[in-house]
């Protein structure tokens, strides 16, 4: 959609329950009247205050990062829905980047952080456009430390993915939908976080054309309902857990009452990324009450196993996917052990004990879950001192992870 030749991306929301598709729910949070309270306007580190985003709640919006050579020209542009947070970004030709915002909630009139029971965010009209035969694709990412994501499954024009704790929806069709509305559910997705006092959101674009573009983006804090919903992870499972015993993995779970699913598919993976079906169960009570289930995996992988549940309505062709659980199988002795937890910024190196020769992926993430460093290396059996050249994340607390397809270990570290 356009506004004075500016591309508009709306993050919007309607109740997840079965409201009519044309109904627009009341925004849970309203972002109006930004005031710059610190930093340089429209630059990394700039902090804007929004008063009374809901009853008794103020919020600040910090520009946490800018990547890919793009820029922000307005923290809250006009047009569209005035209750939404609507940054305007400029995307040069042949550039791919985003603006990252950190939104913090406070008790009104104070600097006291205030936990929110639910924070919904919905990207609307995450579409694209062709410029002289070359595409621009919009995308949005929402940090999901403890929540779930849902969107329209059938006919979606978004590539939906999870990168660490970030839920990402990127347009794949480069089809432009003019106007500011919520009719095109195929270019929307909704995220829900619970019990948080801050949230991070990225708005960006992958411009593969030779034309620069200015885009009005919009973050609307409310739910939506979708036809053919897919939910990642799900809201129907009351519990899901597992244990390794007697050379098998026993998985147990309970479905909530009044669900509409008739089939459970158990999926497993050796690396947490690529899942295959391990078995399936019929749901026999037709949602008349809670439904407990048990599944035995008699052929688990040696080492780490990842499991998730897919709940399927085979008639309506909708499904939900659960959180992933990880279960260690076999010898409990760790393949990797970290010896040092304090690293020097000038010459960072980590000492790792390895029980066998291994090709590994070494990753470092900040405390918000963002990966700041990654390298492949070979560990020899015994003690290894691994340098981290070109580590540019600065000082502070981080989490370092060493992994293979079957094993991994992590350790909190301090760089000083």
Can you tell me about this structure?
The chain is globular. Helix content is 0%, strand content 53%. The protein has no helices and 35 strands. The protein has 3 domains: 2-227, no CATH class; 233-329, Immunoglobulin-like (Sandwich); 336-415, Sandwich (Immunoglobulin-like), CATH 2.60.40.2550. It has strands at residues 2-3, 6-11, 35-38, 47-54, 57-66, 71-74, 88-91, 95-107, 119-121, 123-124, 128-131, 134-143, 148-152, 158-163, 166-171, 189-193, 198-207, 213-219, 229-232, 237-245, 248-255, 263-269, 276-282, 291-297, 303-313, 318-321, 325-329, 336-338, 342-343, 349-354, 358-366, 371-379, 382-387, 396-403, 408-415. A hairpin with a 6-residue loop joins β22 and β23 (276-282). The model is unreliable at 1-26 (pLDDT under 50). By secondary structure, the chain is mainly β.
**Radius of gyration over C-alpha positions, nearest whole angstrom:** 23 Å
What's the oligomerization state?
single chain
Strand content is: over 45%
Shape: globular
The secondary-structure class comes to mainly beta
What proportion of the residues is helical, as a percent range? under 10%
How many domains, as an integer? 3
Distance between the termini: 47 Å
Tally of contiguous helical segments: 0
In the predicted model, the low-confidence regions spanning at least 5 consecutive residues are 1-26
Mean pLDDT score, rounded?
A: 83
> Which sheet architecture does the biggest sheet show?
9 strands, antiparallel
Give the number of DSSP strands. 35
């Amino acid at each position: 959609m356009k506004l004075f030749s500016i591309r508009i991306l709306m993050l919007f929301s309607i109740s997840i329950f079965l409201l009519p598709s044309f109904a627009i729910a009341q925004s849970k949070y309203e972002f109006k009247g930004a005031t710059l309270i610190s930093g340089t306007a429209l630059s990394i580190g700039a902090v804007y205050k929004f008063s009374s985003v809901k009853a008794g709640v103020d919020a600040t919006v910090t520009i946490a990062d800018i990547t890919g050579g793009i820029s922000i020209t307005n923290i809250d542009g006009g047009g569209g829905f005035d209750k939404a947070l609507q940054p305007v970004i400029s995307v040069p030709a042949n550039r791919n980047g985003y603006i990252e915002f950190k939104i913090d909630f406070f008790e009104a009139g104070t600097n006291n952080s205030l936990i929110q029971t639910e924070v919904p965010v919905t990207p609307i009209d995450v579409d694209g456009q062709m410029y002289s035969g070359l595409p621009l694709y919009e995308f949005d990412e929402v940090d999901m430390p403890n929540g779930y994501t849902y969107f329209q499954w059938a006919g979606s024009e978004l590539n939906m993915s999870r990168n660490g704790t970030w839920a990402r929806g990127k347009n794949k069709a480069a089809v432009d939908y003019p106007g500011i509305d919520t009719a095109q559910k195929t270019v929307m997705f909704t995220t829900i976080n619970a019990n948080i006092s801050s949230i991070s959101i990225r708005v960006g674009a992958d411009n593969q054309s030779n034309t620069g573009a200015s885009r009005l983006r919009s973050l609307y804090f409310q739910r939506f309902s979708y036809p053919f919903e897919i939910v990642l992870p799900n809201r129907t499972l009351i519990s899901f857990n597992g244990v390794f015993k007697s050379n098998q993995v026993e998985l147990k779970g309970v479905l909530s009452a009044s669900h509409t699913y008739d089939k459970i598919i158990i999926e497993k993976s050796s690396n947490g990324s690529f899942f295959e079906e391990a078995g399936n169960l019929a749901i026999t009570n037709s949602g008349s009450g809670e439904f407990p289930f048990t599944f035995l995996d008699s052929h688990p992988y040696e080492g780490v196993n990842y499991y998730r549940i897919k709940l399927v309505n085979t008639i309506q062709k909708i499904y939900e996917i659960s959180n992933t659980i990880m279960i260690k199988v076999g010898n409990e002795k760790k393949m990797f052990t970290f010896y040092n937890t304090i690293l020097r910024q000038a010459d960072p190196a980590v000492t790792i004990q390895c029980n066998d020769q291994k090709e590994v992926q070494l990753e470092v993430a900040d405390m918000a879950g963002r990966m700041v460093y990654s390298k492949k290396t070979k560990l020899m059996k015994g003690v290894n001192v691994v340098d981290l050249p070109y580590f540019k994340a600065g000082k502070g607390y981080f989490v370092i992870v060493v992994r293979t397809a079957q094993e991994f270990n992590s350790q909190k570290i301090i760089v000083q």
